[in-house]
Queue: 2 jobs
Job 1
Amino acid sequence: MGRLVLCAVALLMLSALSLVSSRYQARQLFVAMEREQAQSREYEVEWRALQVERAALTSNARIDRVAGELQMVPATPERTLYLTESQIGYVADTVGDAQ
């Protein structure tokens, strides 16, 4: 009978230690999950900010304003130089010889 009680107490202690260990691991995993979710939310906020910034930088009004500041003018047919295939070959040969 004494052995049975001793065995039961040992099993009870092992069970209690196992329970404490599993709860500790569960808490650690929960904390890690919360940390990762917070990081994910930060990334989402940063992504949205980058999308807003990209939209602002690529707006037509901004591009027109910056082009004006750089004194750029729109391409017109009068200012456009059209090359034929033979001219392109000549230009490529000339550039190749210069190097």
Job 2
Amino acid sequence: MTATHNETAAGLRPYKLLEGRFHRLAALNEAAGMLHWDMAAMMPPGGAETRAEQLAQLRLVCHEILADPAMAGLLGEAESRREELDPWAASNLHEMRRQWIHATALEPRLVEALSRASSRCEGIWREARPASDFAKVAPALGELLALVREAAAAKAARLGGGLYEALLDEYEPGGKTASIDAVFDDLAGFLPELRAKALEAQTRRPAPLAAKGPFPTARQKALGERLMATVGFDFDHGRLDTSLHPFCGGTPDDVRITTRYDESDFASALMGVLHETGHALYERGLPQPWRYQPVGQARGMGIHESQSLLMEMQACRSKPFLAHLAPLLAEAFGHDDPAFTAENLLALYWRVKPGFIRVDADEVTYPSHVILRYRLERALIEGRMEIADLPAAWNEGMESLLGIRPPSDREGCLQDIHWYDGAFGYFPTYTLGAMTAAQLFDAAGRADPEIPARLGHGDFKPLLGWLRTHVHGLASSLPASEILTRATGRPLDAGVFKRHLERRYLHQA
């Protein structure tokens, strides 16, 4: 028997009502995101208390939308007629259910308390980090951690699995600690030998020349914006600003990225801008017809980080692009500086040097930074470590993984914003993203062998077009694993990432 038009319309009505509610929710979440961007990039320190109140109330309203008792019935009715939905709408309904589970696991009291505690802790961190004063922020971080543990327990009860997995699912849907442990343990065994070989190989090559500074912030920003446009950033739909910690925020139609500048070193800010631009391009490439729906949002932070690391590490540190970059640097900072040659840039950007700061780390040492943070935050969430133990555990972990010990907490456990903003469970996505980036870039190059050469001419259109089709335009319509398998012909394969590292850092290819 075929359903009549009226029966089908009646069946779709719950789904359409859900679409309306999630549209409103997405718009309010975007407003909260813009307030958070302003807090990091523009807001004077005296506005912190007011901003915490604004964000707490907005997040409470968003929670109330999802926790409305009517939502359970609407979801159930819509799911009973799932076969009448097209594939995108069916995926949207699946994502609605997932967001609803995460939200309704928490009481409104806990949602508001988490928002206030994270805003307060982040504000104190902004003062504690420059002063290298962990003791200043430790009490606020301890209070925030207690709330995050409570949220993890509530979500684990609804989702099943462990405490850490309940938090990880917010950033990497379906992510499992067992699979991450296997990948990270494998990398932890592989990287030390690779690092030793790369460092030994560097001794047989000339050290890179240091460019003659200073590098005025205004010129760094102008060059950054020029390269953003080259890569594909649309300044009618976004902007670049300065903050203590680089990030990408805003909305798909108004993408806000930030970086930080050091007038004695142009390299860090420049690659930071290109990294955040990769995030921005992903946001801009999400499908417009599903703009305010869960299915139209980014497919987890593993894919998101793959897009930033693909642009920064795979494309913009490639031999062809560095040849394109060399004359632009000379034009921006000094025509007669021998440091601004393609060969020297290659030696600079392909140099392995264990360091304290994650965002400045090279590709070989970066995964060790992530493995450390993953192990520490799991121990914190699972109650195997307390806040007072964090600085010492951090320093010991750095010495174990990279053979170096931070001189102060500023270069140690205070360097990242994540924990002080309540973002526990995020860190694994950086290395999952790096592995995904290597696999996607490899597949793009096999699909269109002209891509590397085009990068040498500053032409990112073929690469960006491939990403729009195979990643950006799919948004959350498929699981991350299926997006990767469809795009590359295989699931996540650590071998691709390892071969990339060996080619670049051992064989200079």
